[in-house]
Amino acid sequence: MELLQLLYGTNIIRIEDKIKSIAKEYVGTLDDFNYTKLNFKETPVEQIIEEAQTLPFLADKKVIVVEEAVLFTAQKTGSAVNHNIDLLIDYITNKSDDTLIIFAVISEKLDKRKKITKLIAERGRQIEINEMNEKELMNYVRSVFDRNDLEISSEALELLLEKTSYKYEAVHNEVTKLVLYADGNITVDDVENVVSVSLEQNVFLLTDFILKNEKQKAVNLARELILQKEEPMKLLHLVIGQFRLLYQVKILNGEGYQEDNIARTLKVHPYRVKLAQRHTRKYPLDVLLEKMVICRDIDYKFKSSYLDRDALFELFILEI
């Protein structure tokens, strides 16, 4: 096994799961003697290297996890710690100890121009943690329920994934709740009663009401989200982002792009593209452009007006 590993991606839970899987493969059962977590933003490079070179206590091998390893990305460290990166480069170049070091960072991409990023690719292993696709999510959910002697109907599974916007982190959390709640077979009613609707799904629904001109439903949903402590400005920008996505998907569809290609081009989750395509078939491009213009004007009002934000957001829904 490579003793230098770098994990990156945007899915925190999947990254944590992968870290533990790699660590267990190397040392077996994890405990305080063979498994140490350090935070790069809080820990000087000298301390990381010293910990790596110190022989394990009451263990044959050990693992060090360095979280928030932003040095491999274009992100700023955002830390008062003064890091000696040259010292770390020298350690990686000449690493001779048996410690497995796993660097982890929440980021869509690495800065491959950096010397240290190139070095970790040469001397170790880089692993990108992607979002699960629909089939992988279904297999994951069924495997969890199988381990707990539970079954879920196809209809209930589809509803679960829709309410969580096909996001692993949300699916993971809601599956945990269902395991505690259910007894035997998990039904659509169980999912309706237990699983929370994601903010992304609510924004899609809100946009759907707006496009269908169902103003009262849209206002009611907006009020419900605000009662849940969602900020009107945040909701406005999410709705604007949804209209922008619809507009972009409409254009790319017209150019012959397929769903997967659109998701990669726009760098969005494939599920968002799937939802967007349901709308783009119904509405011409000029209608979506008109909505975007209204969004721009309302955004200006939000930033320049002293009026109540909740009232402004309802006004936006009524105007659009």
TrEMBL record:
It is an enzyme of class 2 (transferase). The keyword Isomerase does not apply. It comes from Jeotgalicoccus saudimassiliensis. Its EC number is 2.7.7.7. It catalyses: DNA(n) + a 2'-deoxyribonucleoside 5'-triphosphate = DNA(n+1) + diphosphate. The lineage of its organism: Bacteria, Bacillati, Bacillota, Bacilli, Bacillales. Keywords: DNA replication, DNA-directed DNA polymerase, Nucleotidyltransferase, Transferase. GO terms for cellular component: DNA polymerase III complex. InterPro entries: DNA_pol3_clamp-load_cplx_C, DNA_pol3_delta-like_C, DNA_pol3_delta_N, DNA_polIII_delta, P-loop_NTPase. This is DNA polymerase III subunit delta. Residues 200-319 form the DNA polymerase III delta subunit-like C-terminal domain. GO terms for molecular function: DNA binding; DNA-directed DNA polymerase activity. NCBIfam families: holA. Pfam families: DNA_pol3_delta (PF06144), DNA_pol3_delta_C (PF21694). GO terms for biological process: DNA-templated DNA replication. It comes from the Bacteria. Belongs to the DNA polymerase HolA subunit family. Residues 6-129 form the DNA polymerase III delta N-terminal domain.
